[in-house]
Amino acid sequence: MDTRAAVVRVLREADEPLHWTVIQDRALRAGYLDPFEIADIRRAVLTALGELVREGAVAKAGTGVYRPIAEGRAEGRAGGRGGNPTDG
Q1: pLDDT tens per residue, the chain (88 residues)?
Q2: Residue 87 in contact with residue 78, Cβ under 8 Å?
Q3: Per DSSP, what are the bridge partners of residue 60?
Q4: φ, ψ of residue 75 in degrees (nearest 5)
Q5: Model pTM?
Q6: Spatial distance between the Cα atoms of 16 and 2, rounded to a whole number of angstroms
Q7: How far is residue 51's CA from residue 3's CA, in Å, rounded to a whole number?
Q8: Dihedral, CA of residue 4, residue 9, residue 63 and residue 56, to nearest 10
Q9: Cβ 80 vs Cβ 55: under 8 Å
Q10: Can you tell me the distance from the alpha carbon of 50 to that of 35, in angstroms, rounded to the nearest whole number?
Protein backbone atom coordinates (compact mmCIF):
# COMPACT_ATOMS: atom_id res chain seq x y z
CA MET A 1 0.00 0.00 0.00
CA ASP A 2 1.40 3.42 -0.85
CA THR A 3 1.75 6.12 1.81
CA ARG A 4 -1.15 8.25 0.58
CA ALA A 5 -3.55 5.31 0.63
CA ALA A 6 -2.33 4.31 4.09
CA VAL A 7 -2.90 7.83 5.46
CA VAL A 8 -6.42 8.05 4.03
CA ARG A 9 -7.28 4.58 5.30
CA VAL A 10 -6.08 5.36 8.84
CA LEU A 11 -8.05 8.61 8.91
CA ARG A 12 -11.24 7.00 7.62
CA GLU A 13 -10.94 4.11 10.09
CA ALA A 14 -10.40 6.55 12.98
CA ASP A 15 -13.52 8.61 12.23
CA GLU A 16 -11.97 11.50 14.20
CA PRO A 17 -9.18 14.02 13.63
CA LEU A 18 -5.70 12.63 14.34
CA HIS A 19 -2.25 14.12 14.85
CA TRP A 20 0.20 13.11 12.14
CA THR A 21 2.25 11.09 14.64
CA VAL A 22 -0.83 9.02 15.51
CA ILE A 23 -1.57 8.51 11.81
CA GLN A 24 2.01 7.31 11.31
CA ASP A 25 1.88 5.02 14.34
CA ARG A 26 -1.45 3.45 13.37
CA ALA A 27 -0.32 2.92 9.76
CA LEU A 28 2.83 1.17 10.98
CA ARG A 29 1.01 -0.96 13.57
CA ALA A 30 -1.64 -2.00 11.04
CA GLY A 31 1.05 -2.98 8.56
CA TYR A 32 -0.08 -0.43 5.96
CA LEU A 33 3.46 1.01 5.88
CA ASP A 34 6.65 -1.01 5.97
CA PRO A 35 9.64 0.77 7.53
CA PHE A 36 11.95 -1.57 5.61
CA GLU A 37 10.54 -0.36 2.28
CA ILE A 38 10.24 3.36 3.10
CA ALA A 39 13.50 4.90 4.24
CA ASP A 40 12.01 8.01 5.90
CA ILE A 41 8.50 7.22 7.16
CA ARG A 42 8.08 10.63 8.82
CA ARG A 43 8.85 12.52 5.61
CA ALA A 44 6.65 10.19 3.55
CA VAL A 45 3.65 10.65 5.88
CA LEU A 46 4.03 14.44 6.05
CA THR A 47 4.48 14.70 2.28
CA ALA A 48 1.40 12.55 1.70
CA LEU A 49 -0.64 14.66 4.11
CA GLY A 50 0.43 17.88 2.40
CA GLU A 51 -0.52 16.53 -1.02
CA LEU A 52 -3.86 15.23 0.26
CA VAL A 53 -4.69 18.60 1.85
CA ARG A 54 -3.87 20.43 -1.40
CA GLU A 55 -6.07 17.99 -3.33
CA GLY A 56 -8.96 18.37 -0.87
CA ALA A 57 -9.06 14.73 0.27
CA VAL A 58 -7.89 15.59 3.80
CA ALA A 59 -8.35 18.75 5.87
CA LYS A 60 -6.25 20.31 8.60
CA ALA A 61 -8.15 20.34 11.89
CA GLY A 62 -5.39 22.08 13.86
CA THR A 63 -1.62 22.20 14.13
CA GLY A 64 -0.44 18.80 12.90
CA VAL A 65 -3.98 17.41 13.14
CA TYR A 66 -5.86 16.09 10.11
CA ARG A 67 -9.30 14.73 9.30
CA PRO A 68 -10.73 13.04 6.22
CA ILE A 69 -13.17 14.87 3.98
CA ALA A 70 -16.28 12.96 3.00
CA GLU A 71 -15.81 11.63 -0.51
CA GLY A 72 -18.68 13.69 -1.95
CA ARG A 73 -17.36 16.92 -0.39
CA ALA A 74 -13.83 16.75 -1.78
CA GLU A 75 -14.88 18.27 -5.11
CA GLY A 76 -15.35 22.00 -5.28
CA ARG A 77 -13.44 22.92 -2.12
CA ALA A 78 -11.87 26.34 -2.32
CA GLY A 79 -8.18 26.30 -1.48
CA GLY A 80 -8.18 22.91 0.23
CA ARG A 81 -7.14 24.52 3.51
CA GLY A 82 -9.65 22.70 5.69
CA GLY A 83 -12.06 25.60 6.15
CA ASN A 84 -10.33 27.03 9.22
CA PRO A 85 -9.70 30.76 8.75
CA THR A 86 -6.80 30.62 11.22
CA ASP A 87 -4.89 28.15 9.01
CA GLY A 88 -3.56 31.02 6.99
Answers
A1: 899 999 999 999 997 899 999 999 999 999 999 999 999 999 999 999 999 999 999 999 999 999 998 765 444 444 444 444 444 3
A2: no
A3: 66
A4: -80, 145
A5: 0.78
A6: 22
A7: 11
A8: 60
A9: yes
A10: 20
